[in-house]
Structure formats: structure tokens, C-alpha cells
Amino acid sequence: MMARDRSLIVAGAIFALLLVAPYGLGLIGQGYLTGLLMRAMLLAIAALSLDLLVGQGGMVSFGHSAFVGLGAYALAIGLQAGIDSLLLLTLIALAVSGLFALVTGALALRTSGVYFLMITLAFGQMTYFTLTSLAAYGGDDGLTLWSLATLFGSDVAQNAGQIYFVILAVMVATWWLVHRIGQSRFGRVLRGARDNPERAEVMGFSVFRYRLTAYVIAGMIASLSGVLTAQQNEFVSPALATWQHSGDLLVILVIGGLGSRNGAILGAFFVVIVQDLLGAVTPDWRLIYGPLLVLVVLFAKGGLNRLFAPARQGPAA
């Protein structure tokens, strides 16, 4: 079986399990587990967007969570201003994050390697401190959303049971979009520029333009995670834009498998579930979590995705 076919089968199985999971969990009264799944899916959306940069483009960003924070605050500020349409608020979040990505990406992409990592970290921290300075919207303490956005005038996106399927639909759409980008000419050029930028330039492709486009797309997708996180939690906080959150997204990609869409999803669920299980056992769960990550990276070459699709995929191979 071809690796691509195997990958599609695995993705279909994951989506099917997530589609029926709320019904099975509802029978045993485990609403908390449904919330855990939503948290993992929200992380998966952000991780899928980052994989477009890291796995496809070879651009390691340490400030990607800035876009998640921008998306969340676009929703919160819009609600405060009296806008209650989730679609309109999402468009505002996409516009804000896209403009921010265009400006910061145009500057960051004039560097490469560790310099690119550091300048994205700087932009991420700049976003974090900007959000903490918004005293009218809670500052350091964050902001509770006393009203939520509506979807086509209904409370579908407000109901705890129904927003699960909204998040799932967005995650599936994100997976499909990133998959299509990876299979397109744009994706092939992006990977070619990752492996040999000089040859890509000689062949007539503008590496800077392709990378900037990928950076903007990734930032806009990440803002969707922020919008839905704010809507689901009914709360926004500058913590969404911290460099630690960006680090979590990179950990998810490494554990799941770089350059594989399924790996971003598997890594997100692994991180969320393991953190929750260890947290239930001991308050010092990080002492176990850290060495566990080291073991996974050392012995699970290619990430969790390799367990299901052992063929060569992207840089992780």
C-alpha cells in the first residue's frame, strides 16, 4: 500500500473516531473527556498550521502562538464592540493575523536558521506584551466572555455539546487545506526551497515570495485556533501568545512527525492526554513528562506517524 493511501486511511480513521467519540463518552457521562478532546483538536489546528512552516518549508518559528493570541483577542474585542457573528469575527481575525504575518514575515524571512527562530520569538513576545497592556480587556488577568458569538444566528457555537463538531469540522478542513497545499505545485516548490534554496532560485522561483505566502497562510490558520479556543473556553488570556505555547506546538510536531499532517494531530492528542494523565498522578508531573519526551524523540524516529505510515515522509525521514 502506498504511503499516501495509508496516510489517508489513518486520517479517515482518526476523523471517524472523533466524530462518534462524544456519543460514546456521553453514555458514560464523561463530559470532561469531551473537553479534553476539544483541547487536543484546537492544538492540532495550530500545529497543522505550524507544520506548513516547519515540516514543509523548513522555517522553525518560535513565535507562532502570537497568531493564536491575535485570533482569540480579535473575537473578544469584537464581542465587546457588539459584533456577535462568528463568521464575521473569524474574518476579522483572519485579516488581522494575515496583516501581522505579512509585515513580520517580510522582516523575519530576510534571515534564516537560528536568526529566523530568534526574530519570530521576538515578534511573539512583542505580541504577548502588547496583549498584556490592554487594560480595557483584562491585561495580565485576561478577559471573561460574558456573551458568545452566534453561528448563522443560532447558538450552535455556544452549546458545549455542539461546538465540539464545529471544532472538528474546522480541524478536518485545516487538514485538507494543508494536505492540498503540500500536494500542489506550491508545496513542491516550498519543499524544494527548504532542501536547496539556491537551486530553487536558479530555476526561476522566488523563494522569498513562496515562503512569505506560506507564512501568511500559516498565521491565518493559527488564528482560527485562537478564535475557537476563546469561544470554547469563554475566556481569553495573553498566555495564548507566550513562547511556551509556541514551544508546545513544536514539541507536538516533533512527537507526531515533521512534514506529516496526521503527525500533527497524533502529537496533539498524545501531549494533551499524557499531560492530563500525569497531572492526575502527581503535581510534579513535569519531572516525568520531560524525560518521556526525550525518550520518544530518541526512540520513535519520525514520530508517532511513523507507527502508522512507515514510508518516507518529509524531513523526519
UniProtKB/TrEMBL annotation:
- Per UniProt, what is one Pfam family of this protein? BPD_transp_2
Of the GO CC terms on this record, one is:
plasma membrane
The Swiss-Prot or TrEMBL record annotates one GO molecular function as: branched-chain amino acid transmembrane transporter activity
Note the topology in the membrane. Answer: Multi-pass membrane protein
Q: Which UniProt keywords apply?
A: Cell membrane, Membrane, Transmembrane, Transmembrane helix
Q: Which residues cross the membrane?
A: 36-54, 66-83, 89-109, 116-139, 159-178, 212-230, 250-274, 286-304
**Where found, per UniProt?**
Cell membrane
Q: Which domain of life is it from?
A: Bacteria
- Predominantly, its location class is membrane
Q: What is this protein called?
A: Amino acid/amide ABC transporter membrane protein 2, HAAT family
The species this protein was found in = Allgaiera indica
